[in-house]
Amino acid sequence: MGLENEHSHSHSEAPTIHRMPELTQHDLSALVRDHGPDLQLFLARRLGCVDTAKDLVQDTFVRVLQNRPGEVLGNPRAFLFRVASNLLIDHHRRQQHRDTLTLDDPERPIDQADHRPSIERVVWSKQQVARLQQAIEELPPKCRQVFLLIKFHHHTHAEVAATLGISQSTVVKHMIKAVDFCRTRLDKP
Fold this sequence. Notes:
Strand content: under 5%
CATH class of the largest domain: Mainly Alpha
CATH architecture of the largest domain: Orthogonal Bundle
Number of strands: 2
Structural class: mainly alpha
Order of helices and strands: HEHHEHHHHH
Largest sheet: 2 strands, antiparallel
Number of helices: 8
Low-confidence stretches: 1-12, 14-21
Mean pLDDT: 78
Radius of gyration: 32 Å
């Protein structure tokens, strides 16, 4: 049975609203017990996040208490799923809004971290790449060839040995020499 049928009522039955003095703790507990797990599954499938789904289930019951404290519907399951669906839509809208904010936006919440690297970090990284390129250029030709084939062309030691007509132990020696040389050059201020 699809989710649509799980929380929708028949077209021939209109939902009936019964007025009560207030929704009791027992009534709310019964609603949570009877419909909470299904609401959570419904929301988790749409969100892809169980924790956010749990939050929205809790918000659903809070919303029911805030907006309809004296009403119990003839089909509380359909009503709860409608409230949860509306909260899900609100959540997606807020998420889209957060995703489109820019750093220059004065309305941007302070608690949102900027995951982009700082300008200093970008400059430092570019300098390190330039230093690495210079170090590779300064390697002896055979050592440079071994290093480039392994690190940039992803060849195995055996493939490099066969390609260059050298032993695997010589490949290892060239790699050790190249890595040590490059590391030393990058560590220099």
